[in-house]
Design brief:
Helix content is 23%, strand content 12%. It is of the alpha+beta class and 137 residues long.
Length: 137
């Protein structure tokens, strides 16, 4: 029996949309037009006003600075930040993050994890009952 081989078409990646808006449309909107599209937590943060530090970070993004480093893990990713490379502090080091369209209206802290996987080593001398009688040579 001969099997029919069907030629597969390359998988086409669909363009990202958020609530029916393309990322270019979101970037062109004014902040007041964005409010109904945002999730409630992000909307509340914007309506209550951004802090001075968050405004400063937004100014750096708008200016197009080459290297942006921040400790502001609670900053909302706005559409104008998409495509930028930001270094976010994880508590120990700055992690470089390229903001993708899928990250819009998430927090910066979601992309720089603060905990790592634990890799336990072997037990040391005196850690168990059997290791008490380890010969010295």
């Amino acid at each position: 029996m001969a099997k029919k081989t069907q030629k597969r078409l390359p998988r086409r990646r669909e363009e990202f949309t958020y609530h029916g808006y393309r990322i270019e449309e979101l970037q062109a909107m004014a902040m007041n037009d964005l409010l109904p599209v945002m999730p409630s937590r992000a909307r509340r943060k914007i309506v209550r006003g951004l802090s001075r530090d968050e405004e400063h970070l937004l100014g750096k993004v708008r200016a197009g600075d080459a290297q942006i480093r921040t400790h502001l893990r609670s900053m909302i990713v706005l559409p104008e930040m998409i495509g930028k490379e930001i270094e976010i502090y994880s508590g120990k080091e700055f992690m470089k993050v390229e903001l993708q369209p899928e990250s819009v209206f998430h927090y910066l802290g979601e992309f720089a994890l603060t905990r790592r996987r634990v890799a336990h080593g072997t037990a040391g001398i005196g850690a168990t009952r059997s290791s008490k009688f380890v010969p010295l040579k």
